[in-house]
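Researcher: I've been going back and forth with a colleague about how DYTN protein might be arranged in three dimensions. Neither of us has a model we trust, so I'd like an independent prediction. The organism is Phainopepla nitens, in case that matters for your notes. Sequence below.
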Amino acid sequence: MQQIFRMLMKLFQRARLEKPGQVDPRAAEFTLSLLVAMYDRSGTGYVKTRSAAAALISLSGDTLLAKYRAFFQFYSVPDGKETLITRSALRSLLTDLNQIPAIVGEGCALSCVEIAIRDCFHGVLNAAIVEEKFLSWLRSEPAVLLWLPTCYRLSATEMVSHQARCR
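Model: Here is an independent structure prediction for DYTN protein. You can compare it with whatever you and your colleague have in mind.
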């Protein structure tokens, strides 16, 4: 957790330089507390870097496609000329991402994850899939991750301003 905290400190220091006055000085502490609540419920003092990265990616202000590509990058494995994501890696990703809505009591059961994996690998004979198949499945907005595009759309419209007046 110390390693993650140091990384968060650097991340938020850079964010404070880019957006002065908009980043709380305790942002790294708050973020680490959130990550611990999501990924260290048994109090081991250990949070997987990959799980923390998945949470930070999903909560970032980046585009959905950039988030999806980053997920693939963090959870895939090289296989010769290609990089692939296996069922096991997809299960890890979905389980990690499911901790985000679960922290507010909105997570789904483990069966949702298994259904999503079956859906993603539908018609696939190999043990793993390429990035394009993974991205195509995510663009279909699987139920297990429906919160992610919804949150993205909400944050994308936060700064929209209409010059309309009501009577």
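Researcher: What would you highlight for our discussion?
Model: I'd start with this: The mean pLDDT is 91. After that, consider the following. DSSP finds eight helices and three strands in the chain.
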